Amino acid sequence: MNELTVDDLADVRAGDKGDTLILAVLPRDVEAYALLERSLTPEAVARHFAVTDPVVRTELPHLPALVFRVPSILAGGVTGHSGLDGHGKTLGYHLLMLRLERTL
């Protein structure tokens, strides 16, 4: 099997809106965008983060970027959670570790 990770293809920036994590995936080139567009589905992201609420993906091909909205993952968000990462910044790194199968 010919596997790679999101980190091999893109950078990720994370933010939050309440209890919702926002992840911007910024591919390094056109080929990486095409592969991520095929492989990095909302379902794959939901499985990776083990969430049951629907993950929403917004495609921005002219940027290029893929933006994911992952609901109900920040344990109440910045003001509602006493943990160190209420903004979800480390979860951006977690997405970089998601393994993808290289498709031709």
Automatic annotation (TrEMBL):
Any Pfam family hit: AtuA_ferredoxin
Highest taxon, organism lineage: Bacteria
Domain AtuA-like ferredoxin-fold: 6-99
Name recorded for this polypeptide: AtuA-like ferredoxin-fold domain-containing protein
Organism in which the protein naturally occurs: Nocardioides panzhihuensis
